[in-house]
Model the fold of this input.
Amino acid sequence: MPKSLVLRAAAITAATALVLVGAAGSASAHVTVSSPDAKPGGYAKLVFRVPSESDTASTTKLVVTLPKDHPFAHVGAQVKDGWKVVKTTEKLPQAVKVGDVTLTEAITTITWTAQAGGVPPNDFDEFGLSVGKLPEGVDSLDFPAVQTYSDGEVVKWQQVAKDASDKPEHPAPSLKLATAITPVAATTEDKGGSSDTLARVLGGAGLLLGLVGLGLGLRAGRTRKVTP
Done:
């Protein structure tokens, strides 16, 4: 291959990698929610990942809104050193049955306020909730959040995507229930899949090399017979 084509291909590859890294960095800068054990009808730990997207200011306050149409009968907030946590209860528009319990009011917001420092610039922290029971027959739950910085800036992560192609600038943290799996299951599946794939690749490579060797051996044999 000509040297110019090699250099051009390398440049395109590098540019593509930079674009992908930039996109990944932008996506990871959002306030997000995840869970190691979320299953419809069960109890779960919710983890809110909060990055400080500032070079000079720290995150000093986080307010998370829980779904009112699918309220939780139980809400436990993570106690963090250096943070004050407040749970706010609100009367529901109508009674909602959650498991064996009928709720007329529920905890609707959780507020963490830094007593000193907060989340430093360009760093992140995680805030946990223990909730239940999770609703059944629901694919996902949205948890709008409001992030406040030490310089007074307020970022509202409240935009709900209309569909899979919609990419709002400040999306509300969303938890997928139908696809939630535990880290142990995910790790086991990944290791098994990787080992199986590697074995197949090595097996295919060995078979190919064997066929090539056989072909070369037959060709050499024919050559020796023809030579006087």
Notes: Confidence is low (pLDDT under 50) at residues 9-27, 180-192, 220-228.
